[in-house]
Amino acid sequence: MHPASSLRQYFESDDGSLPEVELTFSDVDTSVAAFRLLFLLSRFDPATGRATVWSIQDNADVAFPGERAASLVVAGIIDSFQVLLPALAVGVDPIPDLGVFFNPGRIVIDYRMGSDWTPQAIQDFMRLLSRCIALGGVLSVPWWGAKGETEFLSVLAVAAGEEEMANQSLEPTSVGKPPSAAQLQRWAAP
């Protein structure tokens, strides 16, 4: 049985809710690196979307600035934001779309439950989260309650081991030291 099969109940039935997974970072730069990683893995295309963010400088909505968005929040140029990142490429098949809220030091990921969440998609989601943890993130899943969070973290531990074996270049960075551009590119490769 696939390790992620034990989590199907938290993904398979679309009840209209958007369950959340939270990542907190003790260093703002690592939260920026984690957002950048998520963005680079997605198929976000600003030309086809109408995503906007609030520009503090312009006091108006402006086009979503892509992978630089988190850095601009930290710099005080735009407000914290939420964006839909489509079809993140972690494994062979993309995982379903994820909503990503960014606030310096914190990323909240939400997802629409449903049949697109196959055991492989769930496992690839766990691999994605293990990459964010390798950047210095601390994960919590309060949405699922204590039992759900325990099950989630158990499967996540298996995924982290698989991720490390599959990609020997996945080296955790120390807190306070953001990964290099080359390391982010390696991690963004499926």
Task: Please tell me about this protein's structure.
- The chain is of the alpha+beta class and 190 residues long.
- 35% of the residues lie in helices and 18% in strands.
- The protein contains five helices and seven strands.
- The protein has helices at 28-41, 69-74, 119-134, 145-166, 181-188, and strands at 20-25, 52-55, 60-63, 81-85, 98-103, 106-111, 137-140.
- The strands form two sheets. The protein has a five-stranded antiparallel β-sheet with strand order 4-5-6-1-7.
- The chain is globular and about 50 Å long.
- The protein starts with 19 loop residues before the first strand and ends with a helix.
- Residues 168-179 have low confidence and may be disordered.
Summarize this, please?
This protein is of the alpha+beta class.
What would you call the structural class? alpha+beta
Number of helices: 5
The total tally of domains equals 1
What percent strand?
15-25%
Mean pLDDT, to the nearest integer, reads 85
Write down the overall geometry.
globular
Rounded to the nearest angstrom, the distance between the terminal CA atoms is 23 Å
Helix content: 25-40%
H/E element sequence:
EHEEHEEEHEHH
Q: What is the number of E strands? A: 7
Rg over alpha carbons: 16 Å
Instruction: List unreliable stretches of 5+ residues.
Output: 168-179
Can you list the strand order of the major beta sheet?
Answer: 4-5-6-1-7
Question: Tell me about the biggest sheet?
Answer: 5 strands, antiparallel
Could you give the topology of this structure?
Layout: E1 20-25, H1 28-41, E2 52-55, E3 60-63, H2 69-74, E4 81-85, E5 98-103, E6 106-111, H3 119-134, E7 137-140, H4 145-166, H5 181-188
Antiparallel strand pairs: 1-6, 1-7, 2-3, 4-5, 5-6
Helix pairs in contact: 1-5, 3-4
